[in-house]
Amino acid sequence: MAKHRTGVFFGTFDPIHEGHIRLCLAALSGGDVDRILVVPLRGLPDYICAADPEDRWRMTVAACSVDPRLEPLRIALDAPESSRIVDLLRQIRRRDDKSELVLLLGSDALLRLRELHHAKEILKSFRFLIAPRPEQDDLDALKAEVLALSSQGVRLRFLLMDPISASSSRIRSASVMAEDSGLPVDVEEYIAARGLYAQDIRIPQAGVWLPRLFAALNPHRFSHSLSVARTARRLALIHGLQPLQAEEAGLLHDCAKCMPIRKMQQIAREHSLTADPAYLQSGALLHSLVGAWVARNEYGMADPQVLEAISYHNTGIPGMSRLAMCVCLADSIEPLRGSNPRLDAIREVADKNLERALLLSLEGTSAYVRERGKELHPRTLQTIAWLQKLPGVQVSF
Ligand SMILES: [Fe+2]
Ligand SMILES: [Fe+2]
């Protein structure tokens, strides 16, 4: 059987961007590697990172949640300041001495191939390097290094990738984040909310909330929460609502989602959040009410409209505010949910008619639940009936 291949991707990831993720996904889908360890470094000898290591770590974890074969590893962040790449490689080897290691190089690292060529100790660990195919000029300039590597028995494989505008240095130097920033949506939201790379801070409490959410949620849920915040903000801007309220509610909406059900039940009982047995038996239902309680008591969220939006983000409720609609809808259409004809149709309607888009989304949920022979909570059915009677909802586009 062919030897298992583990990719190792060192970088400052300051910040991690689409170029990094695409390189990883291309290496995985091409069968070059079976999994990839993504290892953020503290810095480089000639480069001091602009963002704090913990912020870079959280963004890296969020971005890597796109594929379970991407494994963020914080060994460099936890290692003594004096640690070198070879020390980190030894640690990686100790964790896994069976697979062949393959080194992934980003575009910037590729242009520093000359330094790597001299780093014989590092090259001893790798017989195989992968990098995005550079521009022809860069390729010509690299010829000597590539030949030198191959004379040492190290193969370099270039992956053809779609051109992408992402570059960490461009992101760091832009005073306003470009529409096509080349950042994954969760990373883009993290940077904007937190005000990294000299952006204005958008969510005043983000410095406290993001670490807390990161600790409370699994990587997938953390990434989803960032994406919902971004989507809810966008919908609020389109529909003339308060963007900060929508963004904050989006960020916090699932803050209780990864809590064990027993803990949710305990909070619900102690604080009389609901007596509904259907809610008390289901984390999928209960996390919204408990989430609003946690948002108020542990995140200091005092805005009743934001708390309402969190409370009903899963079922909706007749008479709900348009802000709550934004969050409920953003939860179901955020871009990380992928693409299918039904979802894309709702996304299109969402930009024009909030009520109708929410109706379509809840009807879709209802059909999905029924198809699986499960019961929908009556509150969702009541919300659907309420939305159907609202003026302007039945128009078609
Ligand atoms: Fe939720
Ligand atoms: Fe959610």
Main attributes?
single chain, 397 residues, alpha/beta, Rossmann fold, Hypothetical protein af1432, 2 domains, 6-stranded parallel β-sheet, 6 strands, 8% strand, binds fe (ii) ion
Number of helices: 21
Q: Kindly estimate the percentage of residues that lie in beta strands according to DSSP.
A: 5-15%
Please, what is the average pLDDT? 91
**What structural class should be given to the helix and strand makeup?**
alpha/beta
Please outline the major beta sheet.
6 strands, parallel
The low-confidence runs, each spanning 5 or more residues with pLDDT under 50, are none
* Structural domain tally: 2
CATH topology of the largest domain: Hypothetical protein af1432
CATH level-1 class of the largest domain: Mainly Alpha
The radius of gyration is 24 Å
Give the terminus-to-terminus CA distance: 55 Å
Helix content: 40-55%
Overall shape: it is elongated
CATH architecture of the largest domain: Orthogonal Bundle
Q: How are strands sequenced across the largest beta sheet?
A: 3-2-1-4-5-6
Bound molecules: fe (ii) ion
Order of helices and strands: EHEHEHHEHHHEHEHHHHHHHHHHHHH
CATH superfamily of the largest domain: Hypothetical protein af1432
